[in-house]
Amino acid sequence: MILEYLQHMNHWDWWVLALVLVILEVFSPGVFFLWMGIAAGMVGLALLLWPEMNWLAQMLLFSVTSILSILAWRQFQRLHPVKTDQPTLNRRGEQYVGRTFTLEHPIVNGQGKIRVDDTTWKIHGEDCDAGGKVMVTGVEGTVLVVERKT
């Protein structure tokens, strides 16, 4: 039954699939289904121009154009990153780099905690007594890297 359907696909089937994939893109994060939708539209156009194309060639063309379009988009994004006025918006730890804090508890064996606004953060740095000042110099995952301020 599926094989029979695949053998009789026409350009409209591909264009409906393209529309479904583009609509799916609206409801999903990232730009992924858009490129697959464009690839399905291209296969529909190719099938309109060459109606004798068999279903295996259609699937191969769809697969190749989907992969190539997704890879091309990712390469384009890597070479042309989006500029923003708040580059650390969703990277909370990086927002604290350069800020100085007073320790409520000492750093012992290179480990400690500080209170930043309404959150407690683990810190890593050289040992320091409570009441000492430290400056955040980096972030390693969810741990703030600090150095002693004199």
Describe the structure.
With 150 residues, the chain is an alpha+beta fold. It contains four helices and five strands. It has a five-stranded mixed beta sheet with strand order 1-4-5-3-2, with no helix packed on it. A hairpin with a 2-residue loop joins strand 4 and strand 5. The protein is rod-shaped. The mean pLDDT is 89.
Helix content: 40-55%
Largest sheet: 5 strands, mixed
Low-confidence stretches: none
Distance between the first and last residues' Cα: 77 Å
Cα-atom radius of gyration = 27 Å
- Helix-strand pattern, N to C? HHHHEEEEE
Placed side by side, the strands forming the largest sheet appear as 1-4-5-3-2
Determine the number of helices (DSSP H or I, runs of at least 4 residues). 4
User: Total strand count, please?
Assistant: 5
DSSP strand content = 15-25%
Give the overall form: rod-shaped
Structural class: alpha+beta
* Mean of pLDDT: 89
Can you summarize this structure?
The chain has 150 residues and is α+β, with helices and mostly antiparallel strands.
What's the arrangement of secondary structure elements?
Blueprint: H1 2-7, H2 11-26, H3 33-49, H4 55-79, E1 100-102, E2 111-116, E3 119-124, E4 133-140, E5 143-149
Parallel strand pairs: 3-5
Antiparallel strand pairs: 1-4, 2-3, 4-5
Helix pairs in contact: 2-3, 3-4
Descriptors:
single chain; 150 residues; alpha+beta; five-stranded mixed β-sheet; 4 helices; 43% helix; rod-shaped
